[in-house]
Amino acid sequence: MAVAGQWFAPHYAVPEPKSCGIQGTDILSADNKGARISQLLPGEGFAVLEQAGDWAWGFSEHDKYVGYVRADALVEAGQPTHVVDGPAALLFAEPSSRAAITAVLPMGSRLAGHVEGAFLVADDGYVPTQQLRPITESVADAVVAAERLVGAPYLWGGRGVGGIDCSGLVQIAFGLAGIDLPRDSDQQMTAGGPATGEPCRGDLLFWDDHVIMMTGPDTAIHANGHWMRTAVEPLADIVARLGEPIAKRRIMI
């Protein structure tokens, strides 16, 4: 069991695989009025361990994050064929950019379908293939993926549904580069190996409850509450606000 030994329960149920629906959803610490602790993006898997009323309790399949989601946000599990690799993708009601938009899919969203002409034909509509990448292909540079989200609103616990937080940005960007990282910054602090010497592009620097990604030796990108958005700024400015980082990690791709 993915959560056996981590969470106590009087019994362990067989997980029921589901996928997140086209709108995405928050993962909450408790049902109904719990705090948002993370998010599921469209097409991501969620293993349901228990369902009561409007709420399902379980864990996200990609990072084993445990929490509650609205049961009506989940659909039958599918096999994604494509992933959104730009800032967002548009889901159209018809295979035309002039058609009605039925959803805006954040970076990292997963879709199942087949390509006809310039569109992926999915169960819920049509997505331009220029906004997608086959699920089996990775971007060459996680920093490039992160930079596509410059200006995205900051949202604590966000992974792209309405906004994104610091560790969500890092997780999504490296995920598109084929590297699976944990969800939270304290967990990411153990990923990869120590970053020694001058900071390199892609290095991760950490403070208590915050992580940044270096875009070069002197600049970094991060989703942050200071600017309330994803921004690129000089490392010196970040250090002036937060102090010296407590850890530096290098993720090898």
From TrEMBL:
SUPFAM superfamilies recorded: Cysteine proteinases (SSF54001)
Would you say which domain of life the source belongs to?
Bacteria
Q: Name one GO biological process term.
A: proteolysis
Matching PROSITE patterns: NLPC_P60 (PS51935)
**GO function terms (MF aspect):** cysteine-type peptidase activity
Location of the NlpC/P60 domain? 136-252
- Asked whether the keyword Metal-binding is assigned, the reply is no
Going by the UniProt record, its keywords in alphabetical order are: Hydrolase, Protease, Thiol protease
Family listed: Belongs to the peptidase C40 family.
Q: Per its record, how is this protein called by name?
A: NlpC/P60 domain-containing protein
